[in-house]
Amino acid sequence: MSDAVGLVVGTEDSTPLKFAVAVASDAYLQLDDVVVTQREIPGVGPVMTSGIVTEVRSRHEGASFGSDVFLIADGVLPAQVQEIAEITTTRVDPEVYVPPRPGEAARRAEGEERARALYFDQMQKKVPVGLGRDGAPVYLNLEFLNGVRGAHVSISGISGVATKTSFALWLLHSIFRSGVLGGGGRNSKALVFSVKGEDLLFLDKQNTRLDDRLREDYALLGLPAAPFESVGFFAPPTPQDPTARPYVSGRTSGVNAFWWTLAEFCADGLLPYVFADIEDERNQYTMVVHNVASKLAREAEPAGVDGAVTLEGRTIRTYDALVDFVVEKLSDDSTRSTWAGPAIGQGTANAFIRRLISSVRPLKEILRGDLTKNDSRRVSTENAQITVVDLHQLQERAQRFVVGVVLAAETARKEAAGPGSLLFTMIDELNKYAPREGNSPIKDTLLDIAERGRSLGIILIGAQQTASEVERRIISNSSIKVVGRLDPAEAGRPEYGFLPPSQRQRATLVKPGTMFVAQPEIPVPLAVEFPFPAWATRLSECATHPDAGAPPASASASATPAVRKPGSDVFTRLPPAFEDEEPPF
């Protein structure tokens, strides 16, 4: 074959699942190349075996000692340099599982052969996920994202280096702008919780670093090089500000302040989310939590239009005052059993009281009965395709409360609405909300989404530094697993067993912008490089000031896709922002 890059070797065993190719002296194979070889089977015809290069090694054949390399270099000792590529099979077509025979030619798969080798030809709806090492697009099967055959995405990697948040947003952009959702795309939504600064408050602004080269990458993937079109932003109110201005600095318009009234807190039974820290389920004070929540739901009466409540004739307008009232009832022997429940001792009540008092400082700004109510304060995905909830100004306990309450409300709303549209929920630092050990209301909600969300149309996109510290059932229910730069100790964990040994090692070395993507149809994870965001990732990247209105329309993907040949600088030069000392997220 004129396009052959080598021959199947005969000095090593070939199996239907793994074989080796001796690379010709005038050719090369690199990791992640897609290779195909063909064998004639009597009575069957040609059998095509395709695979991905998972290891390449080079050695002197004819040398016995390490020092022989000097003799060979001087021409004293005869020897030959030989490169051997290890190929892990991805597809056998037709499915006659016979090993490739030694001496059969192997070639680099391109075009339709590459699509068949990676099952792209069987994907009815393909989501562009990035560019492979050969410069051609790599796709995800939408059926493993939208719940038809699977759902949920798990993204792991070192904080600040693995670009987990960047990839999650890129995936959302690809899902919404590639057209794979069809008519249902108009009603599909995304809920994004932001915990790392104000970087996600500019998703609707064009990035000043968008140039022709980046537009070319987007065009190659069939996507517009443009920011998100429909985005709603929420942030907590500014502390001690009676006007409830959102607590942001870089962007002051288009952001709504969110909070819950004391009346809602009592009526909706939100007290358990105050105790959203992971606790041992054997702690008895958890019974007090539910008893007090039930008592507040029965006894609290709305007072006025600002969300205050009346309890036993006393009007309460602040969370501090509500906590003082509950503490008073639990500290009094005559009322403790009424509020905490029968047979609850003072020691158990005190354990509850200590934790309740410690919640005042983190929660007092978002649980209010002294602010004028308005509909815009309610965190909802109904008014925009992407809804960003900025949590970075809140203490960790308040972040847990917001995530738990919003997730529970959106899950209930989606369950009532029924199937027909999708809700993508993106959560960073998932190990904080659903750790492997312990229980909490948030963990229960996330487990429900992981195990039942597929049938409801709720898709979880979770990002974490360490998948080994996340609840196993959530990781195992994630059809799509993505890995960026990993800590060497973390890479050795069994949670990354889906990575071949060579990819585990490479995961400790990869640069920002490169991810390993595993999906059920393809037995080997694919290394992809995704383009730098077309949307601003910080205030300094906004093409216009965020308060000055919409940016000028960016150039969309051209009708004729760009073509990049293997070996292009896309593999040797990172996008500009990925070279920064401080990654975008």
Counting DSSP H or I runs of 4 or more residues, the number of helices is: 16
Q: Describe the sheet with the most strands.
A: 10 strands, mixed
Which descriptor suits the 3D outline?
Answer: elongated
The count of β-strands is 23
Strand order of the largest sheet: 12-11-18-10-19-20-9-21-22-23
- According to CATH, the fold-level topology of the largest domain is Rossmann fold
What fraction of the residues are assigned to beta strands by DSSP? 15-25%
Low-confidence stretches: 550-585
What is the subunit arrangement here?
A: single chain
Helix content: 25-40%
| Mean pLDDT figure | 88
Q: What's the CATH architecture of the largest domain? A: 3-Layer(aba) Sandwich
Determine the N-to-C terminus distance.
47 Å
* Tally of structural domains: 3
Level-1 CATH class name of the largest domain: Alpha Beta
Structural class: alpha/beta
Radius of gyration: 28 Å
Query: CATH H level of the largest domain: which superfamily?
Result: P-loop containing nucleotide triphosphate hydrolases
Outline the structure in words.
With 585 residues, the protein is of the alpha/beta class. The chain has 3 domains: 112 residues, no CATH class; 288 residues, Rossmann fold; 109 residues, no CATH class. The chain contains 16 helices and 23 strands. Strand 22 and strand 23 form a beta hairpin. It is elongated and about 100 Å long.
